[in-house]
Amino acid sequence: MPHALRKILHIDMDAFYASVEQRDDPALRGKPVVVAWRGARSVVCAASYEARVFGVRSAMPAVRAERLCPQAIFVPPDFVRYKAVSRQVRAIFARHTDLIEPLSLDEAYLDVTHATSGLPSATAVAEAIRAQIREETRLTASAGVAPNKFLAKIASDWRKPDGLFVIRPHQVEAFLAPLAVGKLPGVGKVMEGKLAAMGVATVADLRRLGRAELEQRFGRWGRRLHELSLGIDEHPVQPHRPTLQVSAEDTFETDLTLDQLEPHIRRLAEKAWAGHQREEGRVARTVVLKLKTTDFRTFTRSFSPPTLPESARQLGDLACALRARVRHPDGTRYRLVGVGLAGFVDRDHFAAQRDLFDTVAPRG
What we know:
This protein is an alpha+beta fold and 364 residues long.
């Protein structure tokens, strides 16, 4: 049975990092700003709308951004400032609902079905939040209002920047029909290609195939595609999503061999351990080493030790030891390394499992 009708917002700050930089430095206003370190291995963290006109986008190599927009002003990221502004914005959200699911520093889902601010509609809540963000942070945000999460996310992008778009329940199927199937969550380039080979370009095309044919071709994912084509998404806003992994990684200016990675692994272990320490009452069972080769192949090695590491140094020891499980030709070089902790469980649950094992384990 479907859930009772929800009222969901997706709030997305406009060019967030770049906008913070332009707000704090008047000389940057109206200029093409790229938030990134310069260098061959750097990627764009954010681009102002003035830079986007030239095709600059987030996650693009910084050298390509510089080629596209030679007049761009490069500003190194300042995540301490961005996090402070993000906390301000989330405090504004909390005036209207307790059901907030942050996706990153600059975007979140809000369930305002029963808004605590007493405003008469989800649209009114979205308007109030955008006005409060503008007044208190001197930044702009775009908002999407819809009956579920995936539609709200599509809607927030509809009138960017500084826009508001509402998809009402009776408008859902008509709104979706002409959209490219790539707009649906989970439909990447590969799936888009498979669907194109079946004559499917739009959501309306997908809908016409019907559930039975989609299930026959794609199994459970086919059923999900059919539901999305009709605007059905029962995933609730999750205010307290448990951490699955904490990690830190770095891309090098110069590719390194496996033997040269140890100081970098230990430095990243310090960062990952600091993140782990913030998880009150939870512990991670698995150490993860991530590597990316010069030719951009990415792989991981992991290990769940019988005794959990008790310090960043021990984590570094375990992560370094995982290099012995890397089977690459001698001389292989790596452009990125990452260290992580995964498999989080409640500390009490882990202790109970360990006590049980100790009780039943055979003794020699």
